Amino acid sequence: MNEKIDTLRLGLWFGAVALLWTCIQAWQLDYAPPRTIPDLVEEAPGATASTEAESGLPALPSLPEGSVESAATVSPQPVNAVTTAEPSREPVRVRTDVLEVEIDPIGGDLKSARLSKYPVHKDQPDVPVVLLNPEPEELFVFRSGLRALGGRPEANHLTLLEAAQGEYSLAKGEDELEVRFSWEAPGDVAVDKIYRFERGRYDVGLEYRVRNLGAEPYSAASYLQIERLHNPPERSYFNVDSYSFTGPVTYDGDKYQKHDVEELAKEPFSQTLAGGWLASIQHHFLAAAVPPPDQEFNYDTQVKDGIYTLTAMGPVTSVAPGAEASLSAQLFVGPKLQAQLEEVADGLKLTVDYGLLTILAQPLFWLLQQIYNLVGNWGWSIIIATFLIKLAFYKLTETSGRSMARMRNLQPRLAALQERYKDDRQKLSEALMDLYKREKVNPAAGCLPMLIQIPFFIAFYWVLLESVEMRQAPFALWITDLSSRDPYFILPLLMAAAMWVQTSLNPAPPDPMQAKIMKWMPMIFAGMFAFFPAGLVLYWFTNSVLSIAQQWRINKVVAGD
Prior knowledge:
- The chain is α+β, with helices and mostly antiparallel strands.
- It has 2 domains: 2-28 and 361-560, no CATH class; 37-352, Beta-galactosidase, Chain A, domain 5, CATH 2.70.98.
- The protein contains 13 helices and 20 strands.
- A 9-stranded antiparallel sheet has the order 6-8-9-10-20-16-15-12-13.
- α11 (490-504) packs antiparallel against α12.
- Mean pLDDT is 79; it is low at 1-57 and 66-88.
């Protein structure tokens, strides 16, 4: 029986480690970015792959089904009051306290976005993350516009719009910046396309003001598009960006869905719904198009030449002669700041992908955020949160700790029984069971705290990996980025030392092989943790130190009983 118990204990230890490692690896595979489509990407032509043969420019989306007149009656060519020739591209530059944006006057679309508060590397603070990019090898842009019925002129994303000035900047003391583009077909229709930027915000308001200058009703529908070359980061154990999903996602008002680009190429997504949105995400950042939640939009996708296009087409709005209508939406281009995402749209916070343990990870992040609001340091937030979690499970771990302490005190008696019945395993098992029963000891109880910690460990892993709030966050001394590995591997070594002390406070397995394995377990863990985010190692180190203090106290109390 003793051999079975020892085997159970060893199995639980190995099971804990295997479960931990397998879960992380399996989840990384589950949520890994879809593979690129090499043969398609290599064939991608020129500026973009989504083109019309006639114009050589990006295709226009079709009007929603059920319109009075089909999209086929609408001219596919850009209509502009000034000229029908392709204009020169002189981007309009917009600067706020957090964004540097370039807007293409053709269509008035966001084509470039630099996140001034988020450097690519911590040691290069002047090189910000570039989220939107019109260059073919990095294509990632918003498109938006109007489609009109009956062949009427329309301000689509191929139409030249006019801005009042070439540069805009959010002045000191101002909280909002308005950027307006205008276009007019004399005697027919006039359109203002207005962007609104706010201080400290990454959501951008978009409004179309349509004035009917003609004698007949003007009917049009607005649309939003995200177009991106599918080029996820190369999978690597040392590249944390590759652990997160990169690609298109949608929300239908109830369900958040990540889409495999290869699957979309075979079976496009198409749905009509209200309260949804579409986005393209990557590690820590996203671009999202959010239609008004109270209007039904037609959502569809297209994949061509390695480029996916996500489109949301709104309902047709009729503007009476001499009247004006307003069509609005929101864009988001920036980091996955959960507070802002929650304010912009329902479900947008789900783009912070914590995986299957979201139910644990979101409360953990909330707890860390509240602590951070008090102490102003994410490292100390992790330490305090670990203490609170340890406190919450104190009674459970105390019961386990007492059983382990009693097992430690029983070691001489166990050794004597093993010596006495070394030739009779049946008698030894009976004697051991009788001893455990009389002393009220559960020899497998020491594994329980480890098993309880595994879900929290994995949840903490994803919180630290996915939460942009902790990206490049410093702690103290040599730890300047909690979201990346310890550059000097000091924390993993400290963690190994703490685990060794913790193991020494527990009874050693009677089997020499098991004892040797347990002796090396701290170094095995240190090797595993060496390349994990420093914040995660800090959590485990703190947990081990608290466990040492708790077990030491329990051993003293039990020894005095």
